[in-house]
Design goal:
The complex is a heterotrimer of chains A (378), B (474) and C (103). By secondary structure, chain A is α+β, with helices and mostly antiparallel strands. Chain A has helices at residues 19-30, 65-89, 107-122, 136-142, 164-177, 220-226, 282-295, 343-355; strands at 12-15, 35-38, 54-55, 100-104, 132-135, 152-156, 160-161, 181-183, 190-193, 198-202, 205-209, 211-214, 234-243, 257-259, 265-267, 303-314, 321-324, 331-335. Chain A has 8 helices and 18 strands. With 103 residues, chain C is mainly beta. Chain C is globular and about 40 Å long. Classes of the chains: A alpha+beta (378), B alpha/beta (474), C mainly beta (103).
């Protein structure tokens, strides 16, 4: 079935068409590169369809200041990126840099947050991250519908959110408009370096490309080893629920409850270590529901119309991996679990880095996968 | 039969039957007669499902009006009334989780009267029947445009008929039966706009002899003859659009055999082009489904006892493929015997014997069906809207043109298109657009619906409040 | 509107209001049936486009007949039995959940 498939001349093949792969492809095409995106089909894990859609800066980079800088850079680039994408595609992705909140339902939770902020402030080489500690009344001034169990929380004006499904759609429309060759149902099972480039193959056939970029989410773990990269990612499950549409009543997103521009309230997100299982657990939904109602009691009356369980793409230290293969020049990999927040950084800076063969070093070098290489024990 | 509330439910039942139509009622009664503890859950206020809707409560007492086929439901209603079944009405099943091990049961999420419960069932029979095939034509979302089934429901449940200029639009026995009933009730429709495809006759013809000796034949021919006496039948309708203002539908525009546009001023348009299995629960339970190229719908694959690909979960009646009320009733018995056997209440060899007999009866009940399926297979133009501005997903107001564009932009299947456009994300959870979305994508890609697939459904398949979820025992 | 057939079995009258207007239905009616019998074809405006919508399927599938019942929004009129003294309101766009609480 694949013999007749025509790919044309491929400069860069990107494996994966999720938000990260599409952001990279979008950015590379804007640099004038001829890009092919090989994606899975309609049914795939797709964190892009399952995430919580926050653009979040709060407490990012604890233990990894470079990640705080990277995240802040992305957050600052978001307004321009959103505008460019909307102008190009006509899709309003509802980007809002509204500021965001992490709410505490007990003094203990509040203290944990406060300690984390204190540790973050003490880290050297950190970007400024304005934030404000608020008590119950302070939160109530921003979110009048909180319940009595909310003891306080932290507000950060740099946080925001976006309509992630429209972001996903806009990136794909952007690819179509920029002439990127996007192929769904082209899952890549093998990549073989052939001296001058790479042969990528799957059930659909085979294609050759000068450069290859892995943006295959959880699929990166296996593919990376074929091209001399280390990308030890594992799935971490998370449940999300969405309610029926309601008139706007939540002005700010929080880490666990936010109202979308469509009116639905998203309630998340749990953390489960259960491999690739994406079945929905009613017990987890119930726990999320209880916490959401304690936070905003009026949510109890809303109907839940959808729920899902999706998989985060998690590295051992939780931070992204951006890497280029030393053994096979031209092979790159990108993986993270904040593909929404980091989308502009991927589309603009990471894409340039790949276009320039990874020669502009600096910031990106600290994200290399070899930080996980441990010498084998004797 | 003992009516219960969500609060009274036991923790565990041998068998939970979902749906109190012909298949569900006969399944529940059959199983209960063998000593199995049965919970029958249904959304409506009274038993009967759609075909026998309001069989015990209808105010329409004149026997002629609802017809002898409707009143055949009465013995079934009497049977269930006498059976030791727990009956939970006005309740929605919003989740089914298949057992993870041999000792575990099905976890069934039920919500009724403002309370949600998760109960365990060793066996489960879905008898959730059918829903009317979407009829996506321009203007089908206007007030005053309803399904023919809706008019049937109003007639059976409340003795209501449309008053004003009413047209029936579509194809299939239900259209003609409703027209005849409305006429008999003194509310004859202005016209029946018959969208049956003339070319279907050649495919149907080989099945005509079987049809002629079936129970459908005399009834059907009598009905068609009566129809022409009581209303204007406009055949060969090849295109339909509804126009109206903010207040509702005002006129219907149509063409016959692609000819000049004609219009009729209307107050109500009742649409119908057959029914398709309601697969929401079989999807969420993880059953395998297939595409039926004749009935043009998804159906869960089942074995001789209507057991699905998920062991212990059977699907009886129209939910497993359209056969009508009489065959659903038999299918319910077969599914129940299968479940009884698996529960060990009756020896396997005895069950096998019973099932063999019932299967023969079931096959006979389907005689003539093939002819009907071929003849009334709805036309492509009424399933896959050519007009780009026709709404496909009513909940999120997504049009056919948007879906076609999403396919070009990489939306290879219904789940990716859903992410791009929200089609299928509303409260109906894709029941009214899923079929159309699949067929649209298949046409745009030049592949079959089976290649395209269907929405990946997750709980809750019926809305349930956050408070109900929070109160679940964990 | 829908009209009731003349020779129906006697069912008790049920009084309710719709958008403040007093109306009557019969015992055994769903809210949707009672509204149609009172000439109400248009029960809500759609939250996405603001287009008017009315009951479509009458069997709980389409969620087109959403109304506010006794202060609770987004109730399916076809799946909810009519009860005496019900206060029914048309659903104007998305559910106003914060207003419901203050009622």
């Amino acid at each position: 079935m694949s013999e007749g498939e025509k790919f044309g001349e491929v400069e860069i093949a990107i494996v994966g068409g999720g938000i990260t792969g599409a952001s990279l492809a979008w950015g590379l095409s804007r640099l004038g590169k001829k890009v092919l995106v090989l994606d899975e089909g309609d049914v795939a894990f797709r964190a892009s369809r399952g995430n919580f859609a926050l653009i979040w800066v709060q407490l990012k980079g604890l233990g990894f200041p470079a990640y705080a800088h990277w995240t802040n850079w992305a957050a600052d680039a978001w307004p321009g990126f959103a505008q460019t994408l909307s102008d190009q595609t006509g899709i309003d992705i509802a980007f809002r840099r509204s500021g965001g909140l992490t709410l505490a339902l007990s003094d203990d939770e509040m203290e944990k947050q406060a300690k984390a902020w204190a540790r973050l402030r003490e880290q050297p080489d950190m970007p400024a991250c304005p934030h404000e500690r608020l008590d119950h009344d302070g939160i109530g001034r921003l979110l009048p519908d909180i319940g009595p169990d909310v003891v306080g929380g932290f507000y950060c004006p740099r946080d925001g959110h976006v309509n992630v499904l429209r972001l996903f759609a806009a990136l794909h429309r952007g690819l179509a408009l920029s002439g990127v060759d996007y192929r769904a149902d082209h899952r890549v099972d093998a990549i073989v370096p052939d001296g001058t480039g790479f042969r990528l193959s799957g059930a659909w056939g085979e294609v050759g490309s000068a450069k290859v970029v892995l943006a295959a989410g959880l699929g990166n773990a296996v593919l990376a080893s074929m091209i001399g990269l280390t990308m030890p990612v594992r799935p971490v499950g998370g449940h999300v629920m969405v309610t029926e549409k309601a008139r706007p009543f939540l002005r700010y997103p929080t880490t666990s409850v936010r109202q979308t521009d469509d009116g639905g309230v998203m309630i998340g997100t749990s953390q489960e270590e259960r491999g690739f299982d994406t079945s929905v657990s009613p017990a987890v939904l119930s726990t999320l529901a209880e916490r959401a109602i304690r936070t905003f009691p009026l949510l109890g009356r809303l109907n839940v119309v959808r729920s899902w369980s999706a998989l985060r793409i998690m590295t051992p230290d939780g931070f992204p991996i951006y890497d280029r293969s030393l053994r096979y020049p031209g092979a790159f990999g990108a993986t993270c679990h904040s593909g929404v927040t980091l989308a502009p950084a991927h589309a603009l800076r990471l894409a340039s880095w790949i276009a320039e063969d990874g020669s502009s070093s600096g910031l990106l070098d600290v994200f290399r996968g070899r930080r996980f290489d441990v010498p084998a024990l004797a | 039969m003992k009516t219960v509330t969500a609060h009274d439910l036991a923790e565990t039942y041998d068998l939970v039957v979902v749906g109190a139509g012909p298949a569900g009622l006969s399944a529940a009664a059959t199983a209960a007669d063998h000593g199995v503890t049965v919970l029958l859950v249904d959304e409506n206020a009274s038993i009967g499902g759609q075909f026998y809707r309001a069989i015990t409560t209808t105010p329409v007492e004149a026997p002629g009006l609802l017809g002898p086929d409707f009143w055949k439901g009465r013995p079934l209603a009497q049977r269930i009334a006498a059976a030791p079944v727990s009956y939970l009405p006005k309740a929605a099943v919003w989740n089914i989780v298949a057992p993870t091990g041999p000792a575990a049961g099905f976890e069934i999420g039920v919500s009724g009267g403002g309370a949600a419960r998760v109960i365990l069932a060793h066996q489960c029979i879905l008898a959730t029947g059918a829903l009317e095939r979407p009829f996506p034509v321009p203007g089908w979302t206007l007030p005053g445009v309803m399904t023919a089934g809706a008019a049937q429901t109003l007639l059976k449940e409340s003795g209501l008929v449309p008053s004003g200029r009413t047209v029936l639009v579509g194809t299939g026995p239900l259209v003609y039966a409703l027209a005849e009933k409305l006429a008999a009730a003194g509310a004859p429709p202005l016209a029946v706009l018959d969208t049956t495809i003339g070319a279907n006759w050649s495919a149907a013809l080989p099945w005509l002899p079987e049809f002629l000796i079936s129970r459908f034949a005399v009834k059907g021919l009598r009905l068609l003859a009566a129809l022409r006496r009581c209303t204007r039948v406009i055949s060969g309708v090849s295109e339909v659009a509804l126009d109206g203002t903010g207040q509702g539908v005002e006129r219907i525009r149509f063409r016959r055999h692609g000819g000049a546009e004609e219009t009729l001023a209307v107050d109500y348009a009742l649409l119908h082009q057959g029914v398709i299995p309601n697969i929401a629960l079989s999807c969420v339970a993880g059953c395998s489904h297939d595409w039926d190229p004749l009935q043009l719908c998804w159906f869960p694959t089942t074995d001789a006892t209507f057991q699905s690909s998920v062991g212990g979960l059977a699907i009886a009646g129209d939910g497993a493929g359209i056969g009508g009320a009489e065959s659903a009733l038999i299918a319910g018995e077969i599914a129940a015997i299968g479940a009884i056997g698996r529960l060990g209440f009756v020896a396997a060899d005895i069950c096998d014997g019973l099932i063999a007999g019932k299967r023969r009866q079931w096959s006979r009940s389907l005689r003539g069906r093939r002819f009907i399926d071929h003849l009334y297979q709805p036309g492509r133009q009424f399933r896959i809207p050519a007009n780009p501005s026709t709404i496909v997903c009513r909940c999120e107001e997504v049009t056919a043109g948007q879906i076609r564009r999403a396919v070009v932009e990489g939306g290879i299947g219904p789940n990716q298109v859903k992410a791009f456009l929200r089609s299928g994300m509303g409260p109906c959870q894709g029941r009214l657009c899923g079929q159309t979305v699949t067929e649209l994508i298949a046409e745009a890609r030049g592949v079959t619906p089976a290649d395209v697939g269907y929405f990946h459904l997750r709980p809750p398949v019926k809305p349930v409040t956050l408070a109900e979820l929070a109160a679940l025992k964990r | 509107m829908f009209r009731r057939l003349p020779d129906l079995a006697v069912r008790k009258a049920v009084s309710f209001t719709f958008d403040g207007r007093s109306m009557q239905g019969r015992e055994g009616d769903s809210i949707a049936a009672a509204l149609l019998a009172n000439g109400i074809d248009h029960v809500r405006v759609h939250p996405v486009s603001g287009a008017p919508r009315s009951p479509y399927c009458l069997m709980g599938v389409c969620f087109e007949c959403l109304v506010t019942v006794n202060g609770v929004g987004n109730r399916q009129a076809c799946q909810t039995e009519l009860r005496d003294a019900m206060v029914i309101e048309s659903q104007r766009g998305a559910r106003a959940v914060s207003d419901e609480i203050s009622q």
